[in-house]
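Can't attach files on this board, so I'm pasting raw text. These are the components:
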Amino acid sequence: MSSVDISALVADARAGRPSAVARLISLVEDESPHLRAVAAALSPYVGRARVLGLTGPPGVGKSTSTSMLVSAFRARDLRVGVLAIDPSSPFSGGALLGDRIRLHDHTTDPSVFIRSMATRGHLGGLATATPQALRVLDASGFDVVLVETVGVGQSEVDIVSLADTTVVLLAPGMGDGIQAAKAGILEVADVFVVNKADRDGADQTVRDLKHMISLGRRSLGPSWRQPIVRTVATSGDGAAELVSALDAHHDWLVSHGELTTRRETRARREIEAIAVRELRARLGGVRGGEVLDRLAEQVAAGSLDPYAAADELTGKLG
Amino acid sequence: MSSVDISALVADARAGRPSAVARLISLVEDESPHLRAVAAALSPYVGRARVLGLTGPPGVGKSTSTSMLVSAFRARDLRVGVLAIDPSSPFSGGALLGDRIRLHDHTTDPSVFIRSMATRGHLGGLATATPQALRVLDASGFDVVLVETVGVGQSEVDIVSLADTTVVLLAPGMGDGIQAAKAGILEVADVFVVNKADRDGADQTVRDLKHMISLGRRSLGPSWRQPIVRTVATSGDGAAELVSALDAHHDWLVSHGELTTRRETRARREIEAIAVRELRARLGGVRGGEVLDRLAEQVAAGSLDPYAAADELTGKLG
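---
Top answer:
Structure tokens for the assembled complex are below.
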């Protein structure tokens, strides 16, 4: 592995070779020995891509909507990267094969790069690998990167902290869900999409959303009025309106200095996640894990409380 | 607040006073200045309660099933604690009021203590507060503690690491979900419940589960054959069979030394979570956050990569 020529890989990726992009993402996903060298090599080229997050409950049409957006950006001759995140929860209703198939329309287009990020059983892996994969796509010259995931907030990968603009998708007939979700989606959405807008209940969903927005107070600083766009992703209806709304939000971010703020927030979280991961590894490794094993035995037996144990453990980090 | 008499509170809680139990849980939830003193005071009394985790997709009848189990254990004159965890995801379909109402049947019973753990917007809070609340109930003399949550794996609170026995609930007509969930639920379930077993499709769900179990290999050491129990939680049908299955699993845990192993694993994760939280606070606090702010600016601007930034940050922990 020491024969990997990372600067050549980065140059190839920037020249538009999908295999080099894929290889770089693998190098950051696998926590390979080249991870740090790759991260350093990418740095000078990052910061150009627009990062759009798409999220929403299962069944709302996220992958179809992603595919629709890919087509819309391709029509403008922009290069588009897609990170489809499967948080690997058995109950998330995450990436099913059928969903992903819609994106296959684009797999023969060399200006579209699609990567499914799934790490069942590797908790913590996605939280550091996803921002790195995003940096690979950004540095490789993709103009737009779409990050698609189910759920927000509780997920290990917080799409909101990754994206410049977060799109929350809903669909008719999920009224209860909307009520339950109230506070959460108001906080995270920059743009709302009511997909499947040709179905019964779409008007009601839009009304419910408008009502929620009118009640909500946003804590994101300068006010941005969240638009509601109706789409039928399967037919492409509403794609132009959605892209306009995304452009308008991008312009707003730039003119209000929010783009820099959001990206610095993203960098801060990324640095923290890496540092915490490193410290966690050090904690587990204190005397080959022997200290933690002994402390856990004492806590389970009731002879020590977990806070005192944690103090002893961090005290040994040195 | 310095006038809190913690040992008196612990004595009151152990004497069966719900208000003392509630107060202690608040003291560990709020990260109050008394947190460490409470944790230390509880230690000698923990390790007696049986901890049962209930999980499953939204709509499967988790709260009704919890209520059914509470009744079954009360019929044996056992004291029962319930921690209902709302991971506060806008899309989780988590704690709706209607769900919780079923548990209200038990609210007048002084031998049942129900606490809803919800911390919307306080990421990281549940991960440390829930095990502490569990310790309060355990030390207060509850014979059984039921921990109910939606989802597993991606959730911040990993019910599997908290529980001695994990019950996964499914319901007829969720075939796709089961397929998608395959690997995940096989790994975590000690006991399967097919609730709403009076509905069409229950036989098929049981067959699907049996098929999955026959295909799966479990990585949990000594083999335990996961039973499938049919219930109709709304009527109480199947309650006795479920309790028998839970008892059988408890006996198996004890006879195979697995109970101690699981509880030491729980203690290890709890210690780690506290230590990581502490270290994360220290990272953010390096020179009043000024170092992290500067590093984030450099990373966002592309003049530094996040790994080098993380190294610089952890290097300043001292």
